[in-house]
Amino acid sequence: MIRFSLIVPVYNRIDEVSDLLESLVCQTSNNFEVIIVEDGSTEPCEQVVNQYAGRVEVKYFFKSNEGRSIARNYGMERATGDYFIFFDSDCVVPHRYFEHLARFLESEPLDCFGGPDAAHESFSTTQKAINYTMTSFLTTGGIRGGKIRMEKFVPRTFNMGFSREVYNKVGGFREMFSEDIDMSTRIRHAGFTIGLYPDLPVYHKRRVDFKKFFRQVYVFGMSRVTLKLLYPDSLKPVHLLPAAFVIGTVAMILLGIFVSPWCLLPLAVYLAAVVIIALAVTRSSVISLKALPATVIQLGGYGCGFIKAYVSKILLRRGRDVEEEVQLRKGK
Q1: Where is 188: in which H helix or E strand?
Q2: Separation CA 141–CA 135 (nearest Å)
Q3: CB 144 within 8 A of CB 135
């Protein structure tokens, strides 16, 4: 009987699906099935998936475009495993992932779990720089799955799993930004155990350029306000740091222009620290230099999205209001 059902929503990601499936063919344990849910792509990956039939147990489904959460739910409805595992389509999986996962579940059983993300040696320097900033404690990225904890660990769908029992009680994902944080919160509130398996990473390609990266973290910042409306106690001091970075940076620049250039010193020291520590961690001058704009984009994009949503939804009560958020929380 299949133990793990790996569910991957896909939208116009043919090349990524090929890399993902290639890494799954090489697994040392094959007690899993792969469910690819094509979410109304205009460039379907069915032909690529068919090339792996017989090499890995894979099922392909095509449905109309409704969003990644609906696609994941569609996959879970058709899964046969005891556990549902979720990767993004831009992930590459280390060849002993499922072997290690089975061992961890035996020695440290959890109802819901997640692992960290890492950069594969084949990734571009931009991808590696973005990965560094998304996992560095200097950018609050340490909260995503490292050993430095600034809040309770929250599994994310680039590397997340939970038992069928969790699904039966909590239900599926809701179609919203940061749907994995919402799902993890609902699982925790239902009384299930949640934790990090630190030695269960995946290689996550992330965004391939800084423009796409900015859009991604900007949406993350906006969705944090939505999560606050859904779960008032979910907003922690760490979530305010990017907004503080934006406000502080603007203030220092203005003071540097109109008062004294020395007012820019704290910002300069911080950015220098980012480059120096990135160099020590990555051992690459190119990646460490690219970590500078990646850091500014991550904190600036997230902070701007957070500020905009907070002013609009909380202070001015525009867009979706609190009552609508409450209805969403109730699943209505």
Answers
A1: helix 179-189
A2: 4
A3: yes
Q: How many residues does the chain have?
A: 332
177 in Cβ contact with 102 (< 8 Å) = no
Tokens of 25: 């063919």
Cα 316 to chain centroid distance, Å, stands at 29
CA distance 40 to 12: 9
- Among 4, 22, 11, 1, smallest CA distance to 203 is for 22
CA dihedral 62, 67, 69, 73 (to 10 degrees): -30
Please say whether the beta carbons of 34 and 57 come within 8 A. Answer: yes
What are the CA-CA distances from residue 132 to residues 171, 205, 274 (Å)?
34, 12, 10
Which amino acid is present at 272?
A: A
Per-residue pLDDT of 241-262, as tens digits, reads 999 999 999 999 999 999 999 9
| DSSP string computed for 248-302 | HHHHHHHHHHHT-GGGGHHHHHHHHHHHHHHHHHH--HHHHHHHHHHHHHHHHHH
Reported as a single tens digit per residue, the pLDDT across 43-93 is 999 999 999 999 999 999 999 999 999 999 999 999 999 999 999 999 999
| pTM attached to this predicted model | 0.87
